[in-house]
Amino acid sequence: MTRVAACQVPIDIDDAEKTRRLVFESVAEAARLGARLVVLPELALCGSIFADATESTSRAEPADGTSVRFFAELSDAFDLVLVAGFCEVSGLDLPYNSAVVVDHGRVLAVYRKTHLWDFENELFTPGDVLPPVVETSVGAVAPLICYDLAFPEVLRSVALRGAQLIASPANWPDSDSPDVRPPEVSKAMAGAAINRVVVVVADRVGEERGRRWVGGSVICDHEGYRVAGPEFGVETVLVTDVDLDATLDKAISGRNHVFADRRTDLY
Amino acid sequence: MTRVAACQVPIDIDDAEKTRRLVFESVAEAARLGARLVVLPELALCGSIFADATESTSRAEPADGTSVRFFAELSDAFDLVLVAGFCEVSGLDLPYNSAVVVDHGRVLAVYRKTHLWDFENELFTPGDVLPPVVETSVGAVAPLICYDLAFPEVLRSVALRGAQLIASPANWPDSDSPDVRPPEVSKAMAGAAINRVVVVVADRVGEERGRRWVGGSVICDHEGYRVAGPEFGVETVLVTDVDLDATLDKAISGRNHVFADRRTDLY
Question: Which PANTHER family would you find in this protein's record (chains A, B) (predicted)?
Answer without folding.
Answer: BETA-UREIDOPROPIONASE, NITRILASE C965.09-RELATED
